[in-house]
Amino acid sequence: MKRGVRALGVAESFHDERSTVAGAVVRADRVVDGFAFDTCAVGGTDATETVRSLVDDLDRADVRYVFLAGIAPAWFNFFDLPRLREHVDRPVVSVSFEESAGLEPALRKAFDGRALASRLAVYRRQPERRPVSVGAETVYVRAVGIGGEEAAEVVRAFTPEGGRPEPLRVARLAARAADDRSVADGSDR
Fold first, then answer.
1. Is 40 in contact with 50 (CB distance < 8 Å)?
2. How far apart are the C-alpha atoms of 55 and 67, rounded to whole Å?
3. Cα–Cα distance between 139 and 119 in angstroms, integer?
4. Residue 58's domain is classified under what CATH number?
5. Does residue 1 lie within any of the structural domains?
6. Which of 11, 30, 37, 51 has its CA 20 to 30 Å from the CA of residue 79?
7. Mean pLDDT of 11-21
8. Contact, 142 vs 129, CB < 8 A?
9. Into how many domains does the chain fold?
10. Sheet holding 6-15, edge to edge
11. pTM higher than 0.90, yes or no?
């Protein structure tokens, strides 16, 4: 992959009722090239809209891929990959870092009625997770707008060491720093 190819990594950090969502534009050669921040509700249903807003606010036509940290940030506030792909018009790749039998049992314990039904509907329309070896690590990838093997190659290209793609590593650091700051100064995000 060419050194200047850019990806937007999206990760979150939360305390209390709001989650800080950070978007970090990172080139394949690890140069950080931009940030955007927003919030979503912990336990809400606005995570997909928040990512759409980040992409729109950045207004970066040069970003080729959107990486998401997992699929259920902020206590099951699901990312809807197909809807997001339709809006951003580029491949969307969700990367998680732990093996799992799935989220349905946890959803059934945490929600019921309409809240459960709406989350299950979003969860069930997502592509399946596929294990991808990255060096000595294994990550789990869902992708839309890109085939499975190409998604694996893209994840590997943006993961210079360890098992976390650089756009997601930088976004996670930024989200934590912004979240810690807002908690420390008591600001209303």
1. yes
2. 11
3. 23
4. 3.30.2170.10
5. no
6. 30
7. 93
8. yes
9. 1
10. 32-41, 18-27, 6-15, 63-69, 92-96, 137-144, 130-134
11. yes
pLDDT at 43 over 80: yes
CB atoms < 10 A from the CB of 21, how many?
30
List all residues 6 or more positions away from 69 whose beta carbon is below 8 Å from its beta carbon. Answer: 9, 10, 11, 12, 94, 95, 96, 168, 171, 172
Give the position of tokens 């807002």.
Answer: 182
Domain residues for the domain of 47 are: 6-185
Report the alpha-carbon distance of residue 129 to residue 127 in Å, rounded: 7
Distance CA 78, CA 66 (A): 16
Using 50, 70 and 90 to split pLDDT, how confident is the model at 189? Answer: very low
Helix, strand or coil for residue 93? Answer: strand
Residue 83 resides in a domain: yes
Residue 66 lies in a domain: yes
Sequence-distant (6+) residues with CB within 8 A of 78 are 45, 47, 48, 71, 72, 119, 122, 123, 126
